[in-house]
Amino acid sequence: MKKGMTRRLFLSSGAAAGGAVALGGRGLVKAAASAAAPAQAGFIRFSVFDPRARLDSYRRAVEVMQERSRVNPNDPRGWTFQASIHGTTAQGEFFNKCEHASWWFLPWHRAYLYFFERIVREASGDRDFTLPYWDWNDSNHNSLPSAFRETNSRLFDSTRTEGVNNGEPLVGPELNISRAMAAPAFLGSATSRGFGGVPLPARRKELIERPSHDTIHVLISGNMGHPLTAGLDPIFWLHHANVDRLWDAWLASGRANPADANWRNNVVNRVRRPFVFFNERGQQVEVTTADFLPGGNRLDYSYDDLEGNSPLLLTNRDLRGALERGQRDAAGGGAVALTAQKRKTIQEKQRTVFGDARRVELTAAGNRVVLGATPVTVRAVIPENSRVRFRAALELGHEDVETPPVINLNVEDVRSTGAPGVVYRVYLNQPDANASVDPDEANYVGSVVLFQSSGHGGGHGGHDAQPGENFSFDITNIGQALRERRRLDESKLDVTFVSKGVGGRNVPRSEVSVGRISVTVER
Ligand code: C2O
Q1: In DSSP terms, which residues pair with 378 in a beta bridge?
Q2: Which carries the bigger pLDDT value, residue 465 or residue 344?
Q3: Quick one: which atom of ligand 1 is closest to the CA of 86?
Q4: Fewest beta carbons within 10 Å, which of 169, 242, 265, 438?
Q5: Would the pTM of this model clear 0.85, i.e. be above it?
Q6: Using CA positions, which residue lies closest to atom 3 of ligand 1?
Protein backbone atom coordinates (compact mmCIF):
# COMPACT_ATOMS: atom_id res chain seq x y z
CA MET A 1 0.00 0.00 0.00
CA LYS A 2 2.81 2.35 0.89
CA LYS A 3 4.44 1.81 -2.47
CA GLY A 4 1.22 2.53 -4.30
CA MET A 5 0.75 5.69 -2.30
CA THR A 6 4.17 7.01 -3.15
CA ARG A 7 3.57 6.36 -6.80
CA ARG A 8 0.23 8.02 -6.64
CA LEU A 9 1.64 11.09 -4.91
CA PHE A 10 4.35 11.29 -7.49
CA LEU A 11 1.93 11.02 -10.39
CA SER A 12 -0.50 13.55 -9.07
CA SER A 13 2.22 16.04 -8.19
CA GLY A 14 3.63 15.66 -11.69
CA ALA A 15 0.24 16.24 -13.23
CA ALA A 16 -0.62 19.17 -11.03
CA ALA A 17 2.77 20.79 -11.48
CA GLY A 18 2.00 21.78 -15.07
CA GLY A 19 -1.35 23.12 -13.96
CA ALA A 20 0.11 25.01 -11.04
CA VAL A 21 2.39 27.01 -13.28
CA ALA A 22 -0.38 27.77 -15.74
CA LEU A 23 -2.69 28.83 -12.95
CA GLY A 24 -0.08 31.03 -11.35
CA GLY A 25 0.68 28.85 -8.34
CA ARG A 26 4.17 30.24 -8.31
CA GLY A 27 2.79 33.76 -8.13
CA LEU A 28 0.89 32.84 -5.00
CA VAL A 29 3.99 31.61 -3.25
CA LYS A 30 5.97 34.66 -4.36
CA ALA A 31 3.35 36.97 -2.94
CA ALA A 32 3.48 35.19 0.38
CA ALA A 33 7.25 35.51 0.47
CA SER A 34 7.37 39.21 -0.29
CA ALA A 35 4.60 39.98 2.18
CA ALA A 36 6.95 38.55 4.80
CA ALA A 37 9.53 41.25 4.17
CA PRO A 38 9.25 44.93 5.15
CA ALA A 39 8.56 47.42 2.35
CA GLN A 40 12.10 48.83 2.23
CA ALA A 41 13.53 45.37 1.73
CA GLY A 42 14.92 44.86 -1.69
CA PHE A 43 17.40 42.06 -1.24
CA ILE A 44 16.88 38.82 -3.10
CA ARG A 45 18.97 35.72 -2.54
CA PHE A 46 19.65 33.57 -5.60
CA SER A 47 20.71 30.00 -6.16
CA VAL A 48 24.48 29.60 -6.45
CA PHE A 49 23.77 28.07 -9.86
CA ASP A 50 22.03 31.26 -11.04
CA PRO A 51 24.24 33.72 -12.95
CA ARG A 52 22.92 36.49 -10.69
CA ALA A 53 24.69 34.95 -7.68
CA ARG A 54 27.63 37.24 -6.89
CA LEU A 55 30.37 34.72 -6.31
CA ASP A 56 33.16 37.15 -7.24
CA SER A 57 32.13 39.42 -4.39
CA TYR A 58 31.93 36.47 -2.06
CA ARG A 59 35.41 35.29 -3.04
CA ARG A 60 36.80 38.78 -2.47
CA ALA A 61 35.16 39.02 0.94
CA VAL A 62 36.52 35.64 2.04
CA GLU A 63 40.01 36.86 1.19
CA VAL A 64 39.56 40.18 3.02
CA MET A 65 38.06 38.48 6.06
CA GLN A 66 40.75 35.80 6.22
CA GLU A 67 43.37 38.55 6.06
CA ARG A 68 41.66 40.37 8.93
CA SER A 69 41.89 37.27 11.09
CA ARG A 70 45.56 36.86 10.22
CA VAL A 71 46.31 40.41 11.31
CA ASN A 72 44.05 40.32 14.35
CA PRO A 73 42.37 37.08 15.45
CA ASN A 74 40.02 39.11 17.66
CA ASP A 75 38.61 41.14 14.77
CA PRO A 76 34.90 40.26 14.91
CA ARG A 77 34.63 40.89 11.17
CA GLY A 78 37.38 38.36 10.47
CA TRP A 79 36.79 34.90 8.99
CA THR A 80 37.85 32.79 11.98
CA PHE A 81 36.03 34.97 14.53
CA GLN A 82 32.83 34.60 12.51
CA ALA A 83 33.31 30.81 12.35
CA SER A 84 34.07 30.72 16.08
CA ILE A 85 30.72 32.31 16.91
CA HIS A 86 29.30 29.01 15.61
CA GLY A 87 31.93 26.77 17.18
CA THR A 88 35.59 26.54 18.09
CA THR A 89 37.90 24.81 20.53
CA ALA A 90 39.08 28.28 21.59
CA GLN A 91 37.57 30.05 24.57
CA GLY A 92 35.72 33.29 24.06
CA GLU A 93 32.71 35.11 25.40
CA PHE A 94 31.04 35.24 21.99
CA PHE A 95 32.02 31.77 20.77
CA ASN A 96 30.27 28.40 20.56
CA LYS A 97 26.78 29.81 20.29
CA CYS A 98 25.31 27.58 17.58
CA GLU A 99 21.84 26.28 18.32
CA HIS A 100 21.42 22.63 17.43
CA ALA A 101 18.76 20.19 18.60
CA SER A 102 17.10 23.38 19.80
CA TRP A 103 13.90 25.16 18.87
CA TRP A 104 16.15 28.10 17.94
CA PHE A 105 18.05 26.10 15.33
CA LEU A 106 16.36 27.97 12.45
CA PRO A 107 16.18 31.52 13.88
CA TRP A 108 19.72 31.43 15.31
CA HIS A 109 21.26 30.40 11.99
CA ARG A 110 19.08 32.94 10.16
CA ALA A 111 20.37 35.76 12.35
CA TYR A 112 23.94 34.45 12.03
CA LEU A 113 23.67 34.55 8.22
CA TYR A 114 22.09 38.00 8.26
CA PHE A 115 25.04 39.65 10.03
CA PHE A 116 27.56 37.62 8.04
CA GLU A 117 25.91 38.78 4.81
CA ARG A 118 26.24 42.42 5.94
CA ILE A 119 29.92 41.87 6.73
CA VAL A 120 30.44 40.34 3.28
CA ARG A 121 28.82 43.40 1.69
CA GLU A 122 31.18 45.64 3.60
CA ALA A 123 34.30 43.51 3.05
CA SER A 124 33.70 43.00 -0.68
CA GLY A 125 32.59 46.56 -1.33
CA ASP A 126 29.56 45.14 -3.14
CA ARG A 127 26.59 46.82 -1.49
CA ASP A 128 24.13 44.71 -3.46
CA PHE A 129 25.65 41.39 -2.46
CA THR A 130 23.25 38.76 -1.21
CA LEU A 131 24.18 35.35 0.08
CA PRO A 132 23.67 32.68 -2.60
CA TYR A 133 22.02 29.45 -1.52
CA TRP A 134 23.10 25.94 -2.49
CA ASP A 135 19.90 24.10 -3.35
CA TRP A 136 21.35 20.61 -2.82
CA ASN A 137 17.82 19.19 -2.62
CA ASP A 138 17.45 19.83 -6.38
CA SER A 139 18.73 16.70 -8.14
CA ASN A 140 20.33 18.89 -10.84
CA HIS A 141 22.27 20.80 -8.20
CA ASN A 142 23.41 18.10 -5.80
CA SER A 143 27.14 18.28 -6.53
CA LEU A 144 29.26 20.85 -4.71
CA PRO A 145 29.12 23.99 -6.92
CA SER A 146 32.20 24.09 -9.15
CA ALA A 147 33.43 27.49 -7.87
CA PHE A 148 34.03 25.77 -4.52
CA ARG A 149 36.02 22.96 -6.11
CA GLU A 150 38.77 24.99 -7.81
CA THR A 151 41.81 24.05 -5.77
CA ASN A 152 43.49 27.46 -5.96
CA SER A 153 40.36 29.38 -4.96
CA ARG A 154 39.52 30.99 -1.63
CA LEU A 155 36.30 29.00 -1.77
CA PHE A 156 38.13 25.67 -1.77
CA ASP A 157 38.53 23.61 1.40
CA SER A 158 40.97 20.71 1.19
CA THR A 159 39.58 19.01 4.32
CA ARG A 160 36.40 17.91 2.51
CA THR A 161 35.97 14.30 1.39
CA GLU A 162 37.58 13.50 -1.95
CA GLY A 163 34.31 12.60 -3.65
CA VAL A 164 32.73 15.94 -2.76
CA ASN A 165 35.71 17.93 -4.05
CA ASN A 166 35.63 15.81 -7.21
CA GLY A 167 32.07 16.87 -7.87
CA GLU A 168 30.39 13.55 -7.10
CA PRO A 169 26.67 14.05 -6.40
CA LEU A 170 25.39 13.91 -2.84
CA VAL A 171 22.49 11.47 -2.99
CA GLY A 172 20.38 9.25 -0.80
CA PRO A 173 17.16 9.07 1.18
CA GLU A 174 18.84 11.18 3.88
CA LEU A 175 18.67 14.20 1.55
CA ASN A 176 15.04 13.79 0.66
CA ILE A 177 13.24 16.74 2.24
CA SER A 178 9.67 15.65 1.45
CA ARG A 179 8.95 14.48 4.98
CA ALA A 180 10.20 17.75 6.45
CA MET A 181 8.21 19.80 3.96
CA ALA A 182 5.09 17.79 4.78
CA ALA A 183 5.44 18.29 8.56
CA PRO A 184 2.21 19.96 9.67
CA ALA A 185 3.70 21.69 12.71
CA PHE A 186 6.92 23.54 13.52
CA LEU A 187 7.19 21.92 16.95
CA GLY A 188 7.42 18.17 17.46
CA SER A 189 5.95 16.15 20.32
CA ALA A 190 6.44 12.74 21.95
CA THR A 191 4.61 10.98 19.13
CA SER A 192 5.22 13.27 16.15
CA ARG A 193 8.18 14.97 14.58
CA GLY A 194 7.98 18.66 13.83
CA PHE A 195 9.62 20.81 11.18
CA GLY A 196 11.98 22.90 13.27
CA GLY A 197 12.33 21.98 16.95
CA VAL A 198 10.77 20.93 20.24
CA PRO A 199 10.00 23.28 23.15
CA LEU A 200 12.71 23.84 25.72
CA PRO A 201 13.89 22.30 27.99
CA ALA A 202 13.58 19.33 25.62
CA ARG A 203 16.30 19.01 22.99
CA ARG A 204 15.79 17.06 19.81
CA LYS A 205 16.60 17.46 16.14
CA GLU A 206 13.45 17.81 14.08
CA LEU A 207 12.94 16.98 10.41
CA ILE A 208 14.63 19.94 8.69
CA GLU A 209 17.75 19.53 10.84
CA ARG A 210 18.11 15.77 10.80
CA PRO A 211 18.64 13.97 8.56
CA SER A 212 18.98 16.40 5.62
CA HIS A 213 20.84 19.38 7.11
CA ASP A 214 23.17 17.17 9.11
CA THR A 215 23.82 14.86 6.15
CA ILE A 216 25.28 17.71 4.07
CA HIS A 217 27.70 18.41 6.92
CA VAL A 218 28.59 14.74 7.32
CA LEU A 219 29.12 13.91 3.65
CA ILE A 220 31.26 17.01 3.02
CA SER A 221 33.13 16.24 6.24
CA GLY A 222 36.44 17.83 7.22
CA ASN A 223 35.72 21.28 8.64
CA MET A 224 32.06 20.97 7.67
CA GLY A 225 31.81 17.68 9.52
CA HIS A 226 31.85 19.15 13.02
CA PRO A 227 30.09 22.18 14.59
CA LEU A 228 33.42 23.33 16.04
CA THR A 229 34.84 23.96 12.56
CA ALA A 230 31.89 24.06 10.14
CA GLY A 231 31.88 27.85 9.69
CA LEU A 232 35.44 27.79 8.35
CA ASP A 233 34.36 26.18 5.07
CA PRO A 234 32.98 28.85 2.69
CA ILE A 235 30.21 26.48 1.58
CA PHE A 236 28.77 26.47 5.12
CA TRP A 237 26.99 29.78 4.56
CA LEU A 238 25.41 28.68 1.28
CA HIS A 239 24.25 25.42 2.82
CA HIS A 240 22.54 27.33 5.59
CA ALA A 241 21.02 29.85 3.19
CA ASN A 242 19.27 26.88 1.62
CA VAL A 243 18.05 25.56 4.97
CA ASP A 244 16.78 29.08 5.67
CA ARG A 245 15.03 29.12 2.28
CA LEU A 246 13.37 25.79 3.03
CA TRP A 247 11.95 27.36 6.20
CA ASP A 248 10.40 30.11 4.05
CA ALA A 249 9.12 27.50 1.60
CA TRP A 250 7.52 25.49 4.38
CA LEU A 251 5.84 28.65 5.75
CA ALA A 252 4.67 29.70 2.30
CA SER A 253 2.76 26.45 2.05
CA GLY A 254 0.39 27.68 4.74
CA ARG A 255 2.20 26.46 7.83
CA ALA A 256 2.86 28.60 10.88
CA ASN A 257 5.69 29.44 13.23
CA PRO A 258 5.25 28.70 16.95
CA ALA A 259 3.11 31.25 18.79
CA ASP A 260 5.08 30.66 22.00
CA ALA A 261 6.33 33.99 23.39
CA ASN A 262 9.39 32.33 24.92
CA TRP A 263 10.45 31.15 21.48
CA ARG A 264 9.77 34.52 19.85
CA ASN A 265 11.45 36.61 22.54
CA ASN A 266 14.30 34.27 23.44
CA VAL A 267 13.28 33.62 27.01
CA VAL A 268 14.85 30.83 29.09
CA ASN A 269 13.53 30.36 32.63
CA ARG A 270 11.92 33.83 32.52
CA VAL A 271 15.23 35.43 31.57
CA ARG A 272 15.62 37.10 28.19
CA ARG A 273 18.60 35.57 26.37
CA PRO A 274 19.03 37.38 23.06
CA PHE A 275 21.35 36.13 20.31
CA VAL A 276 24.60 38.10 20.22
CA PHE A 277 26.39 38.90 16.95
CA PHE A 278 28.58 41.61 15.42
CA ASN A 279 27.55 43.93 12.64
CA GLU A 280 29.54 45.22 9.65
CA ARG A 281 31.00 48.02 11.78
CA GLY A 282 32.31 45.50 14.29
CA GLN A 283 29.73 46.50 16.92
CA GLN A 284 28.07 43.99 19.18
CA VAL A 285 24.34 43.57 18.51
CA GLU A 286 21.59 41.72 20.31
CA VAL A 287 18.60 40.33 18.46
CA THR A 288 15.74 37.96 19.11
CA THR A 289 13.82 35.46 17.02
CA ALA A 290 10.93 37.92 16.53
CA ASP A 291 13.25 40.32 14.66
CA PHE A 292 13.64 37.66 11.97
CA LEU A 293 10.08 36.44 11.58
CA PRO A 294 7.69 37.72 8.90
CA GLY A 295 7.06 41.36 9.79
CA GLY A 296 10.22 41.52 11.93
CA ASN A 297 12.47 44.55 11.48
CA ARG A 298 15.51 42.53 10.40
CA LEU A 299 13.93 40.44 7.68
CA ASP A 300 15.12 42.44 4.68
CA TYR A 301 15.43 39.73 2.04
CA SER A 302 13.47 37.07 0.25
CA TYR A 303 14.41 34.15 -1.95
CA ASP A 304 14.10 34.21 -5.72
CA ASP A 305 12.40 30.84 -5.74
CA LEU A 306 10.69 28.78 -3.09
CA GLU A 307 9.61 25.88 -5.24
CA GLY A 308 12.28 25.19 -7.76
CA ASN A 309 12.09 21.42 -7.45
CA SER A 310 9.60 18.64 -7.05
CA PRO A 311 9.47 18.10 -3.27
CA LEU A 312 8.81 21.80 -2.95
CA LEU A 313 5.70 21.48 -5.08
CA LEU A 314 4.18 20.71 -1.73
CA THR A 315 4.42 24.44 -1.04
CA ASN A 316 1.43 24.93 -3.30
CA ARG A 317 -1.51 24.98 -0.94
CA ASP A 318 -4.09 23.57 -3.36
CA LEU A 319 -1.75 20.91 -4.53
CA ARG A 320 -0.94 19.91 -0.99
CA GLY A 321 -4.62 19.73 -0.08
CA ALA A 322 -5.20 17.42 -3.00
CA LEU A 323 -2.28 15.24 -2.00
CA GLU A 324 -3.49 15.00 1.57
CA ARG A 325 -6.98 14.08 0.44
CA GLY A 326 -5.44 11.42 -1.79
CA GLN A 327 -3.45 10.10 1.16
CA ARG A 328 -6.57 9.84 3.29
CA ASP A 329 -8.44 8.00 0.55
CA ALA A 330 -5.55 5.64 0.09
CA ALA A 331 -5.61 4.93 3.81
CA GLY A 332 -9.23 3.83 3.56
CA GLY A 333 -11.47 6.86 3.58
CA GLY A 334 -10.35 8.53 6.76
CA ALA A 335 -10.87 7.67 10.41
CA VAL A 336 -13.63 5.19 11.05
CA ALA A 337 -15.47 5.59 14.34
CA LEU A 338 -14.49 2.89 16.82
CA THR A 339 -17.18 0.58 18.12
CA ALA A 340 -17.53 0.19 21.90
CA GLN A 341 -16.23 -3.36 21.65
CA LYS A 342 -13.14 -2.27 19.69
CA ARG A 343 -12.47 0.52 22.11
CA LYS A 344 -12.48 -1.95 24.98
CA THR A 345 -9.95 -4.26 23.28
CA ILE A 346 -7.76 -1.27 22.57
CA GLN A 347 -7.83 -0.16 26.18
CA GLU A 348 -6.87 -3.65 27.30
CA LYS A 349 -3.94 -3.71 24.92
CA GLN A 350 -2.86 -0.26 26.06
CA ARG A 351 -2.79 -1.56 29.62
CA THR A 352 -0.77 -4.58 28.50
CA VAL A 353 1.80 -2.40 26.78
CA PHE A 354 2.07 0.57 29.10
CA GLY A 355 0.54 -0.14 32.51
CA ASP A 356 0.57 3.41 33.86
CA ALA A 357 3.69 4.52 32.01
CA ARG A 358 3.88 6.76 28.97
CA ARG A 359 7.07 5.14 27.75
CA VAL A 360 8.27 1.57 28.16
CA GLU A 361 11.50 -0.10 27.12
CA LEU A 362 11.09 -3.55 25.55
CA THR A 363 14.74 -4.41 25.19
CA ALA A 364 18.24 -2.97 25.26
CA ALA A 365 21.61 -4.18 24.04
CA GLY A 366 24.30 -2.34 25.94
CA ASN A 367 27.67 -3.42 24.55
CA ARG A 368 29.53 -0.76 22.58
CA VAL A 369 29.79 -1.77 18.93
CA VAL A 370 32.28 -0.30 16.47
CA LEU A 371 30.90 0.48 13.00
CA GLY A 372 33.40 0.20 10.19
CA ALA A 373 33.31 0.08 6.41
CA THR A 374 31.57 -3.30 6.22
CA PRO A 375 28.00 -3.87 7.43
CA VAL A 376 27.54 -4.73 11.10
CA THR A 377 24.49 -6.50 12.51
CA VAL A 378 23.45 -6.24 16.14
CA ARG A 379 20.80 -8.59 17.48
CA ALA A 380 18.41 -7.13 20.03
CA VAL A 381 16.80 -10.02 21.89
CA ILE A 382 13.32 -9.23 23.21
CA PRO A 383 13.00 -10.86 26.62
CA GLU A 384 10.14 -13.28 27.20
CA ASN A 385 8.13 -10.88 29.37
CA SER A 386 8.31 -8.11 26.75
CA ARG A 387 7.08 -10.13 23.77
CA VAL A 388 3.41 -9.85 24.61
CA ARG A 389 3.80 -6.10 24.94
CA PHE A 390 5.69 -5.87 21.67
CA ARG A 391 2.93 -7.78 19.86
CA ALA A 392 0.21 -5.66 21.45
CA ALA A 393 2.08 -2.46 20.53
CA LEU A 394 2.37 -3.58 16.90
CA GLU A 395 -1.34 -4.34 16.81
CA LEU A 396 -2.25 -1.05 18.43
CA GLY A 397 -0.23 0.71 15.76
CA HIS A 398 -3.01 0.15 13.26
CA GLU A 399 -6.00 -0.64 15.48
CA ASP A 400 -5.81 2.46 17.66
CA VAL A 401 -6.57 5.07 15.01
CA GLU A 402 -7.12 7.78 17.62
CA THR A 403 -3.95 7.64 19.71
CA PRO A 404 -1.58 5.17 18.05
CA PRO A 405 1.56 4.41 20.06
CA VAL A 406 4.98 4.85 18.48
CA ILE A 407 7.53 2.06 18.52
CA ASN A 408 11.04 3.47 18.38
CA LEU A 409 14.33 1.84 17.60
CA ASN A 410 16.87 3.92 19.52
CA VAL A 411 20.53 4.00 18.59
CA GLU A 412 22.13 5.67 21.57
CA ASP A 413 25.34 7.37 22.59
CA VAL A 414 26.89 7.23 19.11
CA ARG A 415 30.46 8.52 19.28
CA SER A 416 33.16 9.21 16.78
CA THR A 417 36.84 10.02 16.97
CA GLY A 418 36.36 12.64 14.23
CA ALA A 419 34.12 13.63 11.35
CA PRO A 420 33.25 10.24 9.79
CA GLY A 421 32.49 11.41 6.23
CA VAL A 422 29.88 8.65 5.87
CA VAL A 423 26.36 8.07 7.09
CA TYR A 424 25.20 4.73 8.51
CA ARG A 425 22.00 3.37 7.04
CA VAL A 426 19.98 1.30 9.48
CA TYR A 427 18.01 -1.76 8.40
CA LEU A 428 15.61 -3.93 10.35
CA ASN A 429 15.77 -7.70 9.81
CA GLN A 430 17.85 -7.45 6.65
CA PRO A 431 21.33 -8.66 7.67
CA ASP A 432 22.43 -8.94 4.03
CA ALA A 433 21.91 -5.21 3.42
CA ASN A 434 24.97 -3.52 1.90
CA ALA A 435 26.09 -0.24 0.38
CA SER A 436 25.34 -1.20 -3.20
CA VAL A 437 21.62 -1.83 -2.72
CA ASP A 438 19.29 1.13 -2.59
CA PRO A 439 17.41 1.36 0.68
CA ASP A 440 13.93 -0.05 0.25
CA GLU A 441 10.99 0.96 2.35
CA ALA A 442 10.40 -2.57 3.66
CA ASN A 443 13.52 -2.69 5.85
CA TYR A 444 15.27 0.70 5.85
CA VAL A 445 14.39 2.63 9.00
CA GLY A 446 16.64 5.70 8.66
CA SER A 447 20.26 6.74 8.95
CA VAL A 448 22.71 7.54 11.70
CA VAL A 449 24.03 10.91 10.62
CA LEU A 450 26.67 11.99 13.08
CA PHE A 451 27.10 15.75 13.15
CA GLN A 452 28.06 16.02 16.77
CA SER A 453 26.19 18.72 18.54
CA SER A 454 27.23 17.55 21.96
CA GLY A 455 30.47 17.74 23.80
CA HIS A 456 31.01 21.48 23.55
CA GLY A 457 29.60 23.78 26.19
CA GLY A 458 28.50 27.38 26.20
CA GLY A 459 25.58 27.02 23.82
CA HIS A 460 22.53 29.12 24.28
CA GLY A 461 20.31 26.58 25.94
CA GLY A 462 23.16 24.50 27.34
CA HIS A 463 24.29 21.36 25.59
CA ASP A 464 23.97 17.78 26.69
CA ALA A 465 26.72 16.63 28.98
CA GLN A 466 26.59 13.29 27.20
CA PRO A 467 29.44 12.81 24.75
CA GLY A 468 27.47 10.91 22.13
CA GLU A 469 24.40 11.55 19.96
CA ASN A 470 21.10 9.68 20.16
CA PHE A 471 18.94 8.61 17.23
CA SER A 472 15.34 7.39 17.33
CA PHE A 473 13.68 5.71 14.38
CA ASP A 474 9.94 5.13 14.26
CA ILE A 475 9.59 1.45 13.31
CA THR A 476 5.84 1.12 13.94
CA ASN A 477 4.84 0.79 10.28
CA ILE A 478 7.86 -1.18 9.15
CA GLY A 479 7.43 -3.54 12.11
CA GLN A 480 3.77 -4.13 11.29
CA ALA A 481 4.47 -4.72 7.62
CA LEU A 482 7.30 -7.15 8.38
CA ARG A 483 5.07 -9.01 10.81
CA GLU A 484 2.31 -9.31 8.23
CA ARG A 485 4.82 -10.81 5.83
CA ARG A 486 6.07 -13.13 8.59
CA ARG A 487 9.47 -11.44 8.50
CA LEU A 488 9.34 -10.47 12.15
CA ASP A 489 9.13 -12.62 15.22
CA GLU A 490 8.63 -10.96 18.55
CA SER A 491 11.67 -12.52 20.20
CA LYS A 492 14.41 -10.62 18.38
CA LEU A 493 15.29 -7.81 16.01
CA ASP A 494 18.33 -7.69 13.76
CA VAL A 495 19.66 -4.18 13.30
CA THR A 496 22.15 -3.76 10.46
CA PHE A 497 24.36 -0.69 9.96
CA VAL A 498 25.64 0.02 6.44
CA SER A 499 28.28 2.67 5.80
CA LYS A 500 27.65 5.03 2.87
CA GLY A 501 29.82 7.89 1.66
CA VAL A 502 30.05 9.98 -1.52
CA GLY A 503 31.07 8.52 -4.87
CA GLY A 504 31.28 4.92 -3.61
CA ARG A 505 33.85 5.80 -0.93
CA ASN A 506 32.30 4.09 2.05
CA VAL A 507 35.28 3.80 4.36
CA PRO A 508 34.74 6.05 7.39
CA ARG A 509 37.44 8.63 8.16
CA SER A 510 37.12 8.03 11.90
CA GLU A 511 36.06 5.35 14.32
CA VAL A 512 32.32 5.40 14.94
CA SER A 513 30.73 3.36 17.71
CA VAL A 514 27.26 2.79 19.10
CA GLY A 515 26.86 2.62 22.87
CA ARG A 516 23.42 1.08 23.19
CA ILE A 517 20.47 -0.07 21.12
CA SER A 518 16.98 -0.17 22.56
CA VAL A 519 13.36 -0.55 21.54
CA THR A 520 10.77 1.62 23.28
CA VAL A 521 7.06 2.26 22.96
CA GLU A 522 5.69 5.75 23.62
CA ARG A 523 2.25 7.29 23.69
CU1 C2O B 1 25.04 25.13 13.22
CU2 C2O B 1 24.68 23.47 9.84
O3 C2O B 1 25.25 24.01 11.56
Answers
A1: 495
A2: 344
A3: 1
A4: 438
A5: yes
A6: 227
